[in-house]
Specification:
mainly alpha; hpI Integrase, Chain A; 2 domains; two-stranded antiparallel sheet; 14 helices
Length: about 270
């Protein structure tokens, strides 16, 4: 499974957490089926036996990776997943951290260390993924021009993220042993998720997105509300298509009402 893990994380650019979930799902599948002889008719039956849409779709994604990898290595010629589709799921409404909550947290909340504060702030200001921030090199920050920093994201795709000058200085202040900060990817993810849940518990935010990824969601929503179009937001997030981006841009009812009022007023005759 080590080669498959490398394929998921290094070649495809997914996180270690995703790789863990996929490998766990694959190992469970292999307890019931021989991947060399399983058919496209048997796989849906297996998926249907799993509990919940989320588990089915996670397993489906994992098996897609697994069989594509086996074809890539020459062990298989045909992909039994070719005609298997995802189960439909109803997404629960997401409430991202709003601008006032972010301002309050950054001004008043207690962080355990200066680097925790800097990482939290940087994730929100840049919209970076946790693994992108974890892999950010001091040289990348030092070579920034006008706040633009080149990073390598999912699938080894490069893009620019943008930070104000004070945020860049903050990152440079926590360089340790030629690394920004002292945390591994897993530690950084756990710490940021801890803060999100703690701020929710302390009622500093009403967000329903209490993982570290919630800061990326907030970033996308806030720049979209500020006037950026969906294509711009997509490029800033490093998405390959705008459909993925639309999941991130959660617009509240009050904002929609204001936009509607502006549109109405613009069409009113004097």
């Amino acid at each position: 499974m080590n080669q498959l893990r490398n394929y998921i994380t290094k070649v495809k650019g997914y996180s270690e957490r995703t790789a863990d979930a996929y490998i766990k799902a694959i190992e469970l599948f292999l307890k019931h089926h021989d991947y060399k002889t399983v058919t496209s008719k048997e796989i849906p039956n297996y998926l249907f036996s799993l509990n919940g849409v989320y588990m089915r779709n996670t397993t489906l994604a994992a098996l897609n990776f697994f069989f594509k990898f086996k074809i890539r290595t020459g062990e298989l010629k045909l992909n039994p997943m070719a005609n298997v589709s995802y189960a439909k799921t109803v997404r629960k409404p997401v409430i991202p951290i709003n601008e006032k909550e972010i301002a309050t947290i950054l001004e008043r909340a207690n962080f355990n260390s200066e680097q925790d504060y800097i990482f939290f702030e940087t994730l929100y200001l840049s919209g970076m993924r946790i693994n992108e921030l974890s892999n950010l090199r001091p040289i990348d920050v030092k070579n920034s021009k006008d706040g633009a920093i080149k990073i390598t994201g999912k699938g080894d795709k490069q893009r620019f993220i943008y930070l104000p000058e004070y945020a860049i200085k903050n990152l440079l202040s926590i360089i340790h042993d030629n690394k920004i900060g002292t945390y591994s990817y897993n530690t950084l993810r756990q710490k940021m998720s801890y803060y999100m849940k703690d701020f929710k518990k302390c009622k500093l935010t009403n967000t329903t997105k209490t993982s570290a990824h919630g800061l990326r969601t907030a970033y996308a929503t806030h720049i979209y509300k500020s006037g950026a179009n969906i294509l711009t937001v997509s490029k800033l997030l490093g998405h390959s298509n705008c459909q993925t981006t639309q999941i991130y841009t959660h617009i509240d009812i009050d904002f929609l009402k204001k936009q509607h009022q502006i549109l109405q007023n613009s069409h009113l005759k004097p």
